[in-house]
Specification:
- By secondary structure, the protein is mainly beta.
- It is about 10% helix and about 40% strand.
């Protein structure tokens, strides 16, 4: 686990069926394809989010999970955070660490914009921006 899955999600929306992840200055940082493939801005595969919520690195090793209730877990099944239906992102202690707005704007806990993930599921965007690091 290196940079943030934010990096992964930011790197996973390319091609016709992909969504772009952008920095706060609107620079493309990555792509997320509809099939869950996460790509860098140069289209290198960084990881995968499978339909069952399993998050894998580029070598297909499991690094985490997204549960159907919005709970985010690491590879050892320890809870690292939560994504509420309203887009509030919390750490494992239930402290708010950010927000994913309906328009795709990603904000930190101070409500400052840190990026954009338009058209990306809130859970995927939260994982990418807040929870997992990718090497």
């Amino acid at each position: 686990m290196g940079k943030i899955i934010f990096t992964i999600l930011l790197f996973s929306l390319s091609t016709v069926s992909a969504q772009t992840i952008e920095s706060s200055s609107r620079n493309t940082t990555g792509y997320i394809k509809r099939d869950g493939t996460i790509e860098s801005s140069s289209r290198s595969t960084l990881g995968y989010i499978k339909n069952d919520g399993t998050i894998e690195n580029s070598s297909r090793s499991t690094i985490g999970y997204i549960k159907s209730d919005g709970t985010i877990e690491n590879k050892n099944r320890s809870t690292v955070g939560y994504v509420k239906k309203d887009g509030t992102v919390e750490n494992s202690s239930h402290s708010t660490i950010g927000y994913i707005k309906d328009d795709g704007t990603v904000e930190n806990s101070s409500r400052s914009t840190i990026g954009y993930a338009k058209g990306i599921r809130k859970e995927w965007a939260a994982v990418a921006f807040f929870f997992f690091n990718f090497d």
